[in-house]
Write a structure and sequence with these properties.
The chain is built from 5 helices and 8 strands, in the order E-E-H-H-H-E-E-E-H-E-H-E-E. The chain has 174 residues and is α+β, with helices and mostly antiparallel strands. The protein has one domain: Aminopeptidase. The strands form 2 sheets. Strands 1-2-3-4-5 form a 5-stranded antiparallel beta sheet, with helices on both faces. Strands 6-8-7 form a 3-stranded antiparallel beta sheet. Strand 3 and strand 4 form a beta hairpin. The longest helix is centred in the first third of the chain and has 18 residues. The mean pLDDT is 97. It binds coenzyme A. Coenzyme A (COA) binds next to strand 5, helix 4 and helix 5.
């Protein structure tokens, strides 16, 4: 079982009791504003999403982590890795992503979790590079990639929904 610990978070695989809190996160339009076409997701879509995230772990050995607050044991959201199949022009690639519930924003939690996930990807899993893809205008994600020291690689457009996207990259130190 893959598990990472940061000062304030446990990053772990998904459990059945994550469905309710993650569905609440996915039902918040502010959270979903910069994700895909900006639509919220209902409980059923969230269940499918959690199943897909667990499948990524099983099939690829990397995946999105459930980010749980160590003190309160509350689910803060998702931070982790996935293959950006939606953007064929950058494949092969592994993407780092983040999605926290609104009460958890603005405390440096995404950056804290993402540092641990990058270390896991580049050192533990031995990946040569990790990308980040976010919508142009998503200043919160722009802040996280800046803090992580990722470098801007290109701008492109989401093939399915036409949203302008920015791709950042970080390479393993040799
Ligand atoms: C993106 C997200 C994960 C950031 O989480 P967070 O824990 O608030 O981020 P951090 O606190 O680690 O912030 C990292 C940097 O970005 C800056 N930042 C965070 N949110 C910001 C915002 N809304 N506007 C401007 N800057 C912001 C922070 O100030 C910080 O830099 P600083 O320490 O120099 O001030 C969170 O806003 C979120 O879940 N949003 C909804 C989902 C989403 O859009 N995901 C990305 C889709 S690709």
């Amino acid at each position: 079982m893959t598990l990472l610990r940061t000062p304030r978070l446990t990053l772990r695989r998904w459990r059945e009791d994550d469905l309710e809190p993650m569905a609440a996160i996915h039902a918040d339009p502010e959270v979903m504003r910069w994700i895909g076409d900006g639509s919220v997701q209902d409980r059923e879509q969230t269940a499918a999403c959690l199943a897909a995230w667990e499948r990524e772990w099983e099939e690829r050995g990397v995946g999105p982590f459930a980010a749980e607050c160590r003190q309160s044991r509350r689910l803060a959201g998702m931070v982790g890795l996935s293959v950006p199949d939606f953007l064929p022009e950058i494949l092969p690639a592994v993407e780092i992503g983040w999605r926290l519930g609104r009460p958890f924003w603005g405390h440096g939690l995404a950056t804290e979790a993402a540092h641990a996930v990058l270390d896991f990807a580049l050192r533990d899993r031995g990946l040569a590079r990790v990308v980040s893809v976010h919508a142009v205008g998503d200043t919160a994600s722009e802040g996280v990639v800046r803090k992580l020291g990722m470098r801007r690689e290109r701008e492109t457009t989401h093939p399915a929904c036409g949203v302008p996207l920015r791709v950042h990259v970080i390479e393993a130190r040799s």
